[in-house]
Amino acid sequence: MTLLTRAHRAFAILLAPFVLVQPLLAQPAPAAPAETAPATPPIPAPQAVQAEGEVPWLYRGSDVPVDDKWLFGEMKNGLRYAVRGNGVPPRQISIRVRIDAGSLHEEDSEQGFAHLLEHLLFRESKYLGPAEAIAAWQRLGATFGSDTNAETSPTHTVYKLDIPDINEAKLSESFKLLSGMIREPVLSDANVSAELPIVLAEKRERGGAGQRMADLTRRTFFAGQRLATRNPIGIDETLKAARGKTVQAFYDRWYRPENTVIVVAGDADPVVLAGLVEQWFGDWKGTGKPGVAPDFGDPVAPASAAGEGMAPAPIGELAVGVEPDLPRSLTYAIMRPWRPVEDTIVYNEGLLLDAIAQAIINRRLEARARGGGSFLYAQVQQDDISRSVDATFVTFAPLTSDWQAALADVRAVIADAMVNPPTQEEIDREAAEFDVVFANEVEQESVQSGSNLVNNLVNAVDIRETVAAPRVVLDVFRGMKSRLNPEEVLAHTKGLFDGVVTRSVYVTPQPGEADEQALRLALAREAEADGSARLAVASISFDDLPPVGEPGTIAVQKPLGVLEIEQVDFANGVKALVWANDAEPGRVTVRVRFGAGYRAFDAGSAVYAPMGEAALVGSGLGELGQNEIDRLATGRKLGFDFAIDDAVFTFTAQTRSEDVADQLYLFAAKLGMPRWDADPVIRAKAAAELAYNTYSTSPGGVLNRDLEYLVTGRDARFATPDPAALGSVTPEGFRVVWEPLLQQGPIEVLVFGEFDKPAIVEQLRLTFGALPPREPIAAEVAARVPSFSANPGKPAIVRHRGDANQAAAVVAWASGGGVASLRESRQLEILTQLFNNRLLDALRERAGASYSPQVFSKWPEDLPSGGRITALAQLEPEFVPVFFAEADRIAKDLAANPPTADELARVTEPLAQLIRRASTGNQFWLYNLEGATLDPQRVALLRTLLADYSQTSPQVMQFLADRYLAKGEPFLLAVIPEGQELAKAPAGSTAATARAAAGAPAGR
């Protein structure tokens, strides 16, 4: 039934910090190259739709009520489909084509072929010539990478299309192109040679310490099974040996109609969608002998492990991985064979009981970690992995080298849960959390996007289960209330920790700290049940909380002048934007903007900025600590996201109509009566210390750590604190820095969604209106604007400690900031996308030097300057100078020569479609109107937003390129491996010629 707890079972489980099974997101899907819509042939009526009363193919063997919004069909050639009408967002169609074959279906000599084949289907096919995909699809309004993509997992390959601004001609053309891709790709030696560098670049960018530990974890947990030796990305040996003939052989075995499911949802008649599926795939026939799915194998305990120790199951394979730059992490798993299930209501009730049991344990583990335990975090999660194992994973991060004490503490909490039943109050608390989630999904059903619907059904097919309407899920959960009792939850808790074998991996930065024998002995020791982590069950009510202050006075209440948004100004200076609408039933977004943001910090206090992002919310409010706030939120949908922006701090939450008043109280109370618990600060400091070295493991990590700091001329506010800086952090110092910051600067509250407007205006008066007047932001603080560090002709060089074949390069140009020039920033976004297309073509498509080079623009609206345009890529070290040369060449050419009309259309049409789709939700309007109470220009500029992003001229692009790219002095950064020097590019080289000079196959 694919309940909430099953959402990610199809592909992977994340065992921090390693991914065991990770789907590979790959190519964007192609589209019609024609500039005008071709004549559309009539769409025949579908013949394979299942008859009324017949059990649809997805529901056979199940008593889960059929979601009758789907129209199911089975064709004579074995292909199955499911289609439905959906208008979210309007005029969009989402298509998924699932092939029931992934990396587990590869022979030893084919490792990586499933993923390589996915790339090749986008390179050339019956209706698309070589290298036509990206440009053609952009001309039809699809955003590269998000509207057009695919993934390869161990068990399947899925092709994904989200087609905007649909019409009959575009719909028919899309199905035609898809049919050509799926049924008749051109799998030639030339195409394999062209695509291989891109796949190898993707593989290289995924490498490093994290990947090594992921590989070790996969080999250990799935020992004896195909999953242990089948990573979707493949291995160099088999990928480099790939030829058109060998890839064709893999295709012929698995790309067949009987292995295919097509799922479509969108703003069209389902009968029309079914007719298109049958029209373009009904006469498809496989070639040659079909493949026979291999046995994925079962987890089996070694004979020597039978009856060993006191572990939950006999101890099997163990491993200790040493990586100097990775934090400590220990995972053990109780493994069981995976078997297909009858997806019945009783089965799903069992899953829900499993989920309640896990939630209780995880809440106890989190309470222990919050209170200064021996581990930073710990989590229990049951998961089905790639139709290979059913396992319960226990993952935690020891705070020190005494990993055995941390393991004992975690196991003690679990042992107590296995011996002693939970209280009914604990069960009811977790059940209330589930109920609010399921009820919210019912409320949101009418605005559930087509892309989510098709993804959910594809995942259900992958794990061999059904889908259920939100009301069915809620009714099933509420109907099993009698089963939510201590005895049944205890029984399911015990079942989670019963299996055929226990396996474990410990990752440490310190050689000699542990070995397999020590790990075996630690797991074999009997765990002593410890019930001290059980949480108090005393309920807390919002009605019992003190007021924020004396209720305020409304000074002004007036229309904002756009939509039906009202501005409410209070006598204490707080300003609010309130928009009651039913665009998203039952949903409300609340955002609070206050204070000075990064401007508030200087070199002396900068270390406390990231500590605030991690610990400010957890430090409590009034008489309530973090655990008490959690109890207060029971049965409610409340959020508390905190972020530091360029010139403002923000609280953000998505809540429900019935909970928005309580959400406003929480946010106002955090500002009006903050609490300063020490434990969240200590925990945040420990997390930062443990994580710091991980940045050095890859070029991407170094960019995350250093780019903002270096490009702003080493501004201390943007430095990632190192262990020396973190050593000065104390809870007392945290309060000294943050307490005055919560009292400074104007407050703006935005409330957008479905709610009772008079009631919420009154709640604003009782909460934010009751706060004391704010302290002004000092002039010297307000004037802090990030500078820009240019390094003429010479890149800054930073080194990483990852793989020797990994590097990254960055070129950045200063731009501007502020609302007054906001229209120019929108035009800059068009220029940035032009640059991105050219860089992608040069480095990925023609040279295969980088998997995903990117160009993006940052324009701080709340500051008068500080913006920049940034181009970056991860690539091999020898290509770093080539990247600099290509970026410089593209920048100069954009300034010297106006782009063609076709180039512009490939950018402006996707941007226009992106805006039209986004504008159907409240988030879009909130984002574009935040700050409008202080700067009314934002309201006027909203009216030109679509035109600013979608209408321009070649001359404007040339002007902006000259202004920002040609005349500005760029900042250059190279991230290269330790022990290497920056290479020199061959004179006059381009990415393509450099690739050839390096001896690698040339791409398109």
From TrEMBL:
Q: Does the keyword Signal apply?
A: yes
Which InterPro entries does the record associate with it?
A: Metalloenz_LuxS/M16, Pept_M16_N, Peptidase_M16, Peptidase_M16_C
Q: What keywords is this UniProt entry annotated with? A: Hydrolase, Metalloprotease, Protease, Signal, Zinc
The signal peptide here is 1-31
Q: Where is the Peptidase M16 C-terminal domain?
A: 247-430, 746-907
Please indicate which superkingdom the organism of origin belongs to. Answer: Bacteria
SUPFAM superfamilies assigned: LuxS/MPP-like metallohydrolase (SSF63411)
GO molecular function terms noted in the UniProt entry: metal ion binding; metallopeptidase activity
Q: Which Pfam families match?
A: Peptidase_M16, Peptidase_M16_C
Which residues belong to any copy of the Peptidase M16 N-terminal domain?
91-202
Q: Which GO terms describe its biological process?
A: proteolysis
Q: Please report which protein family the annotation says this sequence is part of.
A: Belongs to the peptidase M16 family.
What name is this protein filed under? Peptidase, M16 family protein
| UniProt source species | Erythrobacter dokdonensis DSW-74
